[in-house]
Amino acid sequence: MKPKLLLMVLLLFTSFAFSQTFDVTGTVLDGSGLSLPGVNVKVKSSSQSTTTDFDGSFKLSGVSNGTTLVLSYIGYRTQEVVVSGPKVTVKMSDDTRSLDEVVVIGYGSQKKRELTGAVSVLDSKTLDILKPARIEQALQGTISGVNVTTQSGAPGAPIDVRIRGIATNGQNGPTTIIDGYVGDLNVLNPNDIETITVLKDAQAAIYGTIGANGIILVTTKMGKKNSKTRISFNSYTGFQEASRKLSILDATEYALLLNESYANGGRAIPYPNVSGLGKGTDWQKEVLGKGVPLLNSDLTISGGSEKITYSISGSHLDQEGVVGGDKSGYLRNTARIALGADLSDKFKLKTNVIYTYFNRKTINENGLGSVLFNALNVPATLSPYDANGNFTLVPSTTGFGTEIINPLAQIENTYNDYNYKKLNGNFGLDYKIFKGFVLSSSIGFNTANSESKTFDPQISYGGKVFDVQRSSVTQRTVNDNDYSFDIYGTYNTKIAENHNITATLGNTIYKQWGNSAVATGYDVPNNSWEFADLSLTKGLPTALNTGGYVYDQRRISYFGRAQYDYKGKYLFSAMIRRDSSTKFGPGNKVGYFPSFTAGWVASDEGFFGESQTFNFLKFRVSYGTLGNDQIPNNGYLSILNGEATYVFDGLLVNGAATGQIPNPDLKWEEAKKFDAGLDLRLFNDKVSVVADYFIDTRKDLLIPNIPVSGIIGVGAPGASAPTMNAGTVRNSGFEFAIDYKEKFSDSFSMTLGYNVTFLKNEVIEVNNGTGFIEQGSFGVGQPAAARMEAGKPIGYFYGYKTDGIFQNQAEVEAHPSQLALGANASPGDIRYVDINGDGVIDTKDRTDIGDPIADATMGFNIQLNYKNIDFAVYTFASVGNDMVRNYERTLSDANRLDYVLDRWTGEGTSNSVPKVTTGATANNVLSDYFVEDASYLRIQNVQLGYTLDPKVTQKAGITKLRLYAGVNNLYTFTKYKGFDPGASFGPTNRDGVSQSPIGAGIDYGFYPVPRTYLLGLNINF
């Protein structure tokens, strides 16, 4: 009996011991041993969970030995830990390519392994390394299929983002969605961004008529639940300089060349004695600053309790320009507050409000007569100032033309100011009606106000086009507003364990409205910027001096999406959106945009086996229709926005007239997008490969100013031809991205990334009567330089092909006459090709001489971490894009780049650079002589950082202290002679905002993107 009783006692005691629960405390660290806040810690097969606080600590109550904890955090592998005692320390394994990572896809999210569309993600870690002044800059070279070009290197200048090519001659930029509402990338602080997701294919069809150019989804940072207050301060300061100077003739070289030019033209030489001229004035040095300051700081306070999360931040950016000193600069301040609250088990509230203020000053750029244009064309023989200390006047003789002026005087007499204030954000509420079904609603808003002032002082540059006879000030105010209301339901269910279904159904209401007023006043008191205000001007106008606009447009949309997978192996989704817009005529207000995507996770099949090489393989395909409605407001109507002058009682009276010709049949562009791709992981997930083949066919292009009969008055001031659906463009190509990540030891790890995009752009048709559209300018008084035409890339350069240099008179006489181009040829002149073979060189021989669109773009990135030291290099390359050299004024007395030193001076001396002469010549017409290969490789960012030992900094209450040094835009490898082969600027479209690709890639002396040296620190408390 006693043994049995003893056995029962032992069994009871053992059972009690094994069932005993206790509190578990733990610490979670990242790969470098630093505490990791915000990690989700969950008891497996239980609803019990918590989140690590700012110190990376967590606590769970009532846990028993043998319990499994599941730890997950975006950017790290999900890990499981078995509890064996009251204290746990976990070191998370960094893996930004985790298949369990949740990706935002628009009105919902999916795990990365379940994605069936072409979706790319850029996280905050990359933004921290790149330290871009503008978020768009971080997309260059980091995401395949995305190309970023600057319209100018000036602070605050617009940046163009293109996803999978250029498909229209209107607005080509993607739509940005910030936390669910339509917003702008350029008003955000990069340190407020958690992730940027790019939807490149039919996955974007859920956004309907605004998705044709792709969608960029921005998720901003939020506080973490159950975490202490966290304070993060980031700051960097630096200086900027021009990344490149052009090789221009110095004073002696210029004088000798000019003597030769005058002699060849049969004129007396202007510099009989060149001795003593020396190097002369380096005008680039005069206008390009060195050590130009840059300062950026931001502060974030975040945290959360069991029910509430919060994040409050502010930032300050102050950047001066490398051209123009204090006349060119950009200052941006932002403030943001984000709150989340679990109001109950069923209701969750989320709000995010951002305020942005920026001030920008600009100089004349991107055109004939710009500051850099003048710096390149004013000869080194002229000094900046005369004997009296006044700015030297550039002679107004024929040899200098009427637009070349002293660039320092031009900067000095430039006065403008632009202030922009924007408040935007959203308020969202989620209601969990029952298990698996959530109803979400959100109100997003943008309200922006801007004020600008431009002052033109009375000034004479010596008979130039920039002379101002009467001083004037122009002031403009703009008020733009929009709001959106989204409500949608999401239902998730599982049928028979293997069938997973997610359905989304919703409605969006969007309204946009605003107004503008502009006025000009003459005869500013004291001819001074200090008195440049409309209230002080008393001069009578000689023409209409007021203007403005008002607009109101709306869109109502319905959308639905169904997602299905079987065992996570066979994936399918279908979506459709119906949009109704006031932008189009009565018969075309409604559009339908369906799409389908599918995927197959082949590695989950039984026949795939347990391969040690191939860890994951998924095939994807998508097809759908998306829209683009980016046209001027009321584009299908004719409104009174033209200028007119009437006679009443014998007096001239300013009035308004009919503007553009109406087109009630106008409708949105349609993009038919096809994509086939695969996702592959190799060698224990160390290597990740993503490959896609795509075709994007854009139909019914919205083309403004279609030529029509002049009888109906398209040539009147303010009038214009109508906007019509009159073209088709196709972009096709291949994307490939590979990443390799290796952790060699606890002290050393490496990440390598390479991506490349091959692109073919082709215009399929232009239905405007002529079969082509011309835009873009070259020189003065020459025909349009670029075309959109079937069978060619959009915006290809249209001019004459060359065939070397005439070496003697016999060659001239044996060649078709070039007299129709403006002058008879002579030895030393450029020889043009008779394209049509009619024996005469004339305008019929113009042809394709170049393409501004790159054949391939690619990025290569490397990151190294050794103990507390981190190092990163990001590069970008563009291959196959051409650019027109148009910053050299083709006048006899203008300065030249030093390549003219290799000019033709007699038979056999040169077959590439023509002679110099003041005589009549056809050498200056647009030809491939002025078109250059603008391919380049750029080292975009190099950064070296050091993180102090946490054991040391934590004694001062600092959880992380990192110091770093970096260089942005370190060096560009290129054969292009101009300032920046990566810049692009096209003619402004009629909407006054977008740039046309027809005429892009013509270089008037692009403001160079600066090279920036940075010193910074990151501190977390």
TrEMBL record:
SUPFAM superfamilies: Carboxypeptidase regulatory domain-like, Porins. One of its GO terms (biological process) is siderophore transmembrane transport. The keyword Transit peptide does not apply. It comes from the Bacteria. Keywords: Cell outer membrane, Membrane, Receptor, Signal, TonB box, Transmembrane, Transmembrane beta strand, Transport. InterPro entries: Beta-barrel_TonB (IPR000531), Beta-barrel_TonB_sf (IPR036942), CarboxyPept-like_regulatory (IPR008969), Plug_dom (IPR012910), Plug_dom_sf (IPR037066), TonB-dep_OMP_SusC/RagA (IPR023996), TonB-dep_OMP_SusC/RagA_CS (IPR023997), TonB-dep_rcpt-like (IPR039426). One of its GO terms (molecular function) is siderophore uptake transmembrane transporter activity. Residues 111-215 form the TonB-dependent receptor plug domain. It holds the Pfam family CarbopepD_reg_2. The keyword NAD does not apply. Belongs to the TonB-dependent receptor family. This is SusC/RagA family protein. It comes from Flavobacterium pectinovorum.
